[in-house]
Amino acid sequence: MIGRLNHVAIAVPNLAAATAQYRDTLGAKVSAPQQEPDHGVTVVFIELPNTKIELLEPLGETSPIRGFLEKSPAGGIHHICYEVDDILAARDKLKDAGARVLGDGEPKIGAHGKPVLFLHPKDFNGALVELEQA
Length: 134
Ligand code: CO
Hints:
Elements: E1 5-11, H1 15-25, E2 29-30, E3 34-36, E4 41-47, E5 52-58, H2 66-71, E6 76-84, H3 87-96, E7 108-109, E8 115-119, E9 129-133
Parallel strand pairs: 1-5, 6-9
Antiparallel strand pairs: 1-6, 2-4, 3-4, 4-5, 7-8, 8-9
């Protein structure tokens, strides 16, 4: 059911510093920062030949990654995103298998303008999983 690895997201305490490191030290192609108020994050996309990295910095007081950075102040891998062809079919199959979908269970439009869902990390080996209809 899952397809390509769409991206790995890393929560960072300082987006400008992390972006400069990826651009200048690692030599990667980085985007301009993009504010995503609906998701409570500012994102920088890093284009790699085979996938993407997203650097996430909290945006707003209720940002869902604020708590993550309180527990991991240096930052850390926040989630991984797999592509699916049909997000509603994938959701229903996972729910039937007992997996918990975060939020109200309905897809939201993600940072790439495509529908996304998040799955409870306790149901996936401790990793927060995002599904994106590619
Ligand atoms: Co993501």
